[in-house]
Amino acid sequence: MISGSLVALVTPMDSRGGLDWQALERLIDFHLEQGTDGIVAVGTTGESATLGMDEHKVVIRRVVEQVNGRIPVIAGTGANSTSEAVELTEAARSVGADACLLVTPYYNKPTQEGLFQHFQHIARAVAIPQILYNVPGRTACDMLPETVERLAGIENIVGIKEATGDLQRARELIDRVGEKIAVYSGDDATAVELILMGGKGNISVTANVMPKAMHELCAAALAGDAETARRINEQLMPLHKMLFIESNPIPVKWALQQMGLIGEGMRLPLTPLSARCHTPVLDALHQCGAL
Does position 1 have pLDDT exceeding 90, yes or no? Predict the structure, then answer.
């Protein structure tokens, strides 16, 4: 089972929005050196919504090749078209990804039965471990715990990233499916508490900037060392908050630019971090020791 601090990796781009392969290599090396437990490639933080199908596949392949089996690679392959999700998931399987992360279909607002059939179809179509991803704040689609419980009976559905930040929801999910599949946090600020309840890790934005600390936080929580995990979390809390001062991944890409790890590139409709947000994000970076 994949566990620990799983970074929701940004996709580096140049000033014109082209993919920056050298920066991607630097980021992967940074995470391998700093103890990140797994890499999630081309998820929400990786700007999957603005990558073309071929780009999406190539980024996954490049990440898998460079990681070379040293830590797990989870490929973001969700889509609001079931056939497109199958195509991306098969592409990830074919290049050796360890698992796939599949977001609930966005914009078209399927019913709970539609969600069940969507994920069941992908699981049956592609023989790779699959992690469900529920983030209703971005998709306008909330997959309810009872639907997750139905899906947990499918052999290659192995986990769920629950990104609501609602610990009552997390407790219900762990009670319903925790013996069958892994429950991961998708909310940095509440990840410690979810793991202490029985979750298996955190798919993290903050880990882009503070990978060693997030690894240590998750390791402590998984070991039941609540005091250490909560102490690290308190130290990181300014960053948890400021990395969402504007839409993710705007702040985290700007933070990584200040750290010299990536350039300024981002694709419309996202725009660079507003000037009024520079000081708060810089302050958080200094408080947490990233700069």
Answer: no
